[in-house]
């Protein structure tokens, strides 16, 4: 196990890179300083978890990146406003609004037809991915290399985008 003095010395060697990485993540010098300090604190308190002979720089950068991500998620969650008030606008407006899903049903039907027009070699992996299968699961199921599955899904998306552009491109011009 690395002694405390050796650990501090090795940490100090990474200080400049850590400051740069912190600024690169936050784009703000004060936030970068806070991120660096939090990283230093966590690294010092958890130095017993660092295994000597492994990459200290990568370990420190991982700590910093994880702190940044956790802080970002906390900020996003804090900025989310939950409106639990009753939405009585339509009840009090005096008019009767009836929702009609005809447009969306037509679009779904047309999109399904476009997907059905794809060749089996691209349609099947695309639909499996759409249904939630991971690339590796698709590759294993279809007995294909992982790269082939990824490229087929890419080409299916590309073909669908082209079909949509041909079908609905005229709408943008109006």
UniProtKB/TrEMBL annotation:
Q: What sequence ranges are listed for the domain RNA polymerase sigma factor 70 region 4 type? A: 109-160
Keywords for this entry? Sigma factor, Transcription, Transcription regulation
* UniProt keyword Nucleotidyltransferase present: no
Listed InterPro entries = RNA_pol_sigma-70-like, RNA_pol_sigma-70_dom, RNA_pol_sigma70_r2, RNA_pol_sigma70_r4_t2, RNA_pol_sigma_r2, RNA_pol_sigma_r3/r4-like, WH-like_DNA-bd_sf
Q: Which Pfam families match?
A: Sigma70_r2, Sigma70_r4_2
Q: Does the keyword Transcription regulation apply?
A: yes
Q: Which residues form the RNA polymerase sigma-70 region domain?
A: 16-76
Entry similarity comment: Belongs to the sigma-70 factor family. ECF subfamily.
| Protein name according to UniProt | ECF RNA polymerase sigma factor SigR
Which species is listed as the source?
Neolewinella maritima
Q: Which gene encodes it?
A: sigR_2
